[in-house]
Write a structure and sequence with these properties.
alpha+beta; 3 domains; seven-stranded mixed β-sheet; six-stranded antiparallel barrel; 13 helices; flat; disordered N terminus
């Protein structure tokens, strides 16, 4: 069986009601595709898979999914001491660095054997290879998605014009560096701990302590306490998701771009060029970059959520936490967000700023941000970023935009944006970009 046949192609199952990307202000987002590892052996495996498919897509990244969403753990060979499957996080056992390395390499092989990178490149240039309508005799590439996401003038980015103009060449280079090269795949390996499992451990510890108490006192008080505590532990239900996220980046540089533009790109039907593109097994690859692990210990009480909603909430929040951590861990994955509003007092004096990011993106009162301005060279069309100012979130005015925060009436869920105060720098205007931490591509 071919490797691609071992992966569920689940486009039709994607929730149509997912969160739409914000388009109020134009800015260049990174592009993101997401997958998960499905553990058919897990009691809640199906619920986790359904929750992953139904969870809202991130509104801080452009959707670059290519129709493959689920990798079956049974299809991953020679990773564990058994015949198949990833090294698995289990109750009381965390993955060490060697386990993570093995898993990352196995998943990289899976997605590259399935030619996911090629599907991503094809999507950038207007072709869906997996579509039932794809016809090698009539299909041709186009620059529409690159023009849209990069906000380029059509004539600037046209490949035929790029062969003749400095501006066109610069625009293509700019698009490659900022758009195509910032295409990511996030693979989430989600396991869980049920409250019953946690309760069993708690009861075991309590029973041991209770037995010691009885031995020391000669009575039954310790056993009675242990029994009562065990009953209390059993009154909790639900589970806590443990998510290991593996981030991969599409490899795209001048050499790869040259191969694509010179050998494969065609704006008119050319079956020979498309056939050569489809048969290329080595040029287009995804490369592992970094791993993140999130474990939330909060248990949910009986009756608060049904099983499916609890799974959806747990998976969504767990993955969002990992995405927030990955942004800080990996420079190219950082999210840029527009300044949404200038906040003024009754006399019109500036007292702060707001942006549509919050606790879902990992913001705390200790987070630090730069404000940057996108600058386009009028002669070459090349984009650079200039430092403008520094910001810090205002305590108690951090938006809780996590999944289901409004339903839970969480503190900050009544807000619609996070408020910031300036800690240094110059004038901040709406539409300038906010980025967490220091951004190495910024010029002072």
């Amino acid at each position: 069986m071919k490797i691609r046949e071992l992966i569920f192609v689940s486009l039709a199952l994607l929730c149509a009601g997912g969160a739409a990307a914000q388009t109020d202000m134009k800015y260049r987002r990174n592009s993101l595709a997401e997958m998960m590892v499905y553990h058919s052996e897990d009691e809640f495996g199906k619920e986790i898979r359904e929750a992953f498919m139904a969870k809202p897509k991130s509104d801080k990244y452009d959707d670059h999914n290519v129709g493959i969403f689920v990798i079956d753990n049974d299809s991953i060979p020679n990773v564990t001491k058994h015949s198949h499957g990833l090294v698995k996080a289990q109750l009381g056992k965390t993955l060490n660095s060697q386990d993570v390395k093995k898993n990352a390499a196995a998943l990289e092989k899976i997605v590259n054997d399935a030619e996911v990178a090629k599907l991503m490149v094809a999507k950038w240039f207007g072709i869906d290879i997996n579509s039932a309508d794809f016809d090698i005799n009539t299909a041709c590439f186009n620059m529409r998605l690159i023009q849209e996401r990069g906000q380029y003038n059509a004539s600037d980015i046209d490949v035929e014009m790029a062969e003749r103009t400095t501006r066109g060449v610069a625009a293509l280079s700019d698009a490659g560096e900022e758009l195509i090269g910032n295409t990511f795949l996030l693979i989430n390996d989600m396991t869980y701990v049920t409250a019953e499992e946690s309760a069993a451990i708690a009861k075991g510890v309590i029973n041991v302590l209770g037995g010691i108490t009885d031995a020391l006192t000669g009575g039954t008080a310790g056993s009675d306490i242990a029994k009562l505590s065990g009953n209390i532990a059993d009154s909790f239900t639900g589970f806590t998701v443990k998510t290991h996220s593996y981030l991969y980046q599409l490899e795209w540089n001048d050499s790869i771009a040259a191969i694509f533009y010179n050998n494969y790109y065609t704006s008119k039907p050319d079956p020979e060029k498309l056939k050569a593109f489809l048969e290329d097994k080595t040029t287009f690859r995804l490369k592992y970059t970094v791993h993140e692990y999130e474990y939330g210990g909060k248990t949910t009480l009986v009756g608060k959520y049904d099983r499916k909603e609890l799974a959806k909430m747990s998976c969504t929040r767990s993955i969002d936490k990992n995405i927030a951590a990955l942004q800080l861990a990996y420079e190219d994955f950082k999210v840029k967000t527009p300044v949404y509003q200038i906040l003024t007092d009754a006399k019109g004096r500036v007292e702060g700023y707001s942006a549509k990011i919050g606790k879902k993106e990992g913001i705390t009162a200790n987070s630090k941000f730069q404000v940057i301005q996108r600058v386009e060279n009028p002669n070459t069309g090349k984009t650079t970023y200039k430092y403008v100012a520094s910001l810090k979130p205002v305590k108690d005015k951090i938006w809780d935009n996590r999944y289901n925060a409004v339903t839970e009436k969480a503190q900050g869920s009544e807000l619609t944006a996070t408020s910031f105060k300036k800690t240094g720098g110059g004038e901040i205007l709406p539409g300038m970009l906010i980025i967490e931490g220091k951004y190495r591509k910024v010029t002072e």
